[in-house]
Specification:
40% of the residues lie in helices and 21% in strands. The chain has 13 helices and 18 strands. Strands 1-11-12-13-16-10-9-4 form an 8-stranded mixed beta sheet. The protein has a 3-stranded antiparallel beta sheet with strand order 5-7-6.
Length: 419
């Protein structure tokens, strides 16, 4: 959520930010409602002062004048009406404020959509194979490690079953990535619920914007998470942290659930776009002045996974028109999949500045300051499965149809190849 003082005093900044994102909202309505609210608050305070003054007068009088008693009762009714009206306006303002995205940083490249994202760098050569590399859905079924037919029987389309060495490979990836981030990058592992309430989903910025892309149980007010970022944001909801405890670095493995619709075609094949998948998520709570540095560090930690796996990857800076709802600046990391012949997004690293911390009321206070500030939050996949699985099955594929296991994973799998 953006700072309402910014909207009051410099609405042109918000309008420019919306324009850069290719979005439009009726900000004049919010400004007008805010002015009405502040006027009502002043009026309600004046009535309370009158009521307090009248109550003191009544308290010292032996004979209570009926006119004064009636006046106090009338004041109480007027105050209640104003309080109800203020509450109603608060709800209207909040409803609109929750729809306003974060403000892109000035350094974010301008653009309308993903076609104008900027490729910053690429690592690893895209070599022409001496044989025809099979896409993961084909080689996975041939090796008996991915079962689509049984997944359809269990749940329907866009689900998958990993079997034998396929399931073991994914488990090895999860364990290795967690160990890397914990032991070498200094993150604390967190186990989070995969189900959250509405307040938590709002706090992270998922609601109301992405309600149609989430699975919801109305009876219990439960949402299945699309990423561990959602529950991790609420870890310190309504807290004031000590500055000396920052930065806080969390890493979590979770299931992720997404309803996203995909038209029949190449994107719907295999395990690239599915309704349920595993992901390692890195999450940071930092001082405001350090969030740019921490974003670079987050990106470094995510790309380290790609480097050690030895798979070609590239880093892309996201333009304003493709920027995530809660992000002020983002980088995507994509791995090359030679069998599918495409780049696959395996991570998105974002600086959300104070957007999530305002929604979730997460602040920090230093010993040298009496006032508290909102923390800046950052998140990044480290990395997302099963697309890393796709990259391994297609980059480490041999001519005989076997899959070599990346060197860093061999201690975790207990085998050197899948055949």
């Amino acid at each position: 959520m953006i700072d309402i003082d910014l909207l009051r005093n410099k609405p042109e900044i918000i309008r420019e930010a919306l324009s850069k994102r290719g979005e439009s909202l009726d900000l004049d309505q919010v400004i007008k409602l805010d002015q009405e609210r502040r006027s009502m608050i002043v009026e309600a305070d004046d009535l309370r002062n009158k009521r307090n003054k009248g109550s003191k007068e009544l308290s010292v009088l032996k004979d209570k004048p009926q006119q004064l008693i009636d006046s106090m009762r009338s004041l109480g009714q007027d105050i209640k009406k104003l309080e109800d009206a203020i509450k109603d306006i608060n709800n209207k303002i909040n409803k609109i404020m929750l729809k306003i995205p974060n403000i892109p940083q000035d350094k974010v490249p301008l653009g309308i959509d993903d076609s104008e994202n900027v490729i910053l760098r690429q690592y690893g050569d895209i070599l022409e194979p001496s044989f025809s590399i099979k896409p993961h859905w084909e080689i996975g079924e041939e090796l008996g490690i991915i079962d689509f037919k049984r997944a359809v029987k269990i749940s329907g389309t866009r689900f998958f079953v990993l079997k034998g060495q396929g399931a073991m490979l994914q488990r090895a990836l999860i364990s290795w990535m967690l160990d890397l981030h914990i032991k070498e990058h200094g993150y604390e592992e967190i186990y989070v619920p995969n189900i959250v309430n509405t307040e938590t989903a709002i706090g992270s910025g998922q609601l109301p914007k992405f309600s149609n892309n989430m699975y919801f149980d109305e009876e219990d007010d439960f949402w299945l998470i699309p990423t561990a970022e959602v529950p991790l944001t609420s870890m310190h909801k309504n807290e004031i942290l000590k500055e000396e405890d920052l930065p806080i670095n969390y890493v979590a493995h979770s299931l992720c659930f997404r309803r996203e619709k995909v038209a029949a075609g190449r994107d719907s094949r295999g395990i690239k776009r599915v309704h349920q998948f595993d992901k390692i998520e890195m999450y940071k709570l930092v001082q405001q002045e350090n969030s740019d540095f921490e974003l670079d560090l987050l990106l470094k930690h995510a790309t380290e996974v790609c480097l050690r796996l030895g798979i070609p990857y590239r880093v892309i800076e996201i333009c304003t028109g493709d920027l995530g709802f809660g992000s002020s600046r983002s980088y995507d990391i994509e791995m090359w999949a030679p069998g599918s012949e495409e780049w696959l997004e395996v991570s998105s690293c974002s600086n959300c500045t104070d957007f999530q911390s305002r929604r979730s009321s997460i602040k920090y206070r230093s010993a040298r300051k009496k006032t508290s500030d909102f923390v800046h939050t950052l998140n990044g996949s480290g990395l997302a499965l099963p697309r890393v699985m796709i990259a391994i099955l297609e980059n480490y594929q041999k001519e005989d149809g076997s899959i070599e296991i990346p060197e860093v994973l061999k201690p975790y799998t207990g085998f050197n190849q899948i055949s």
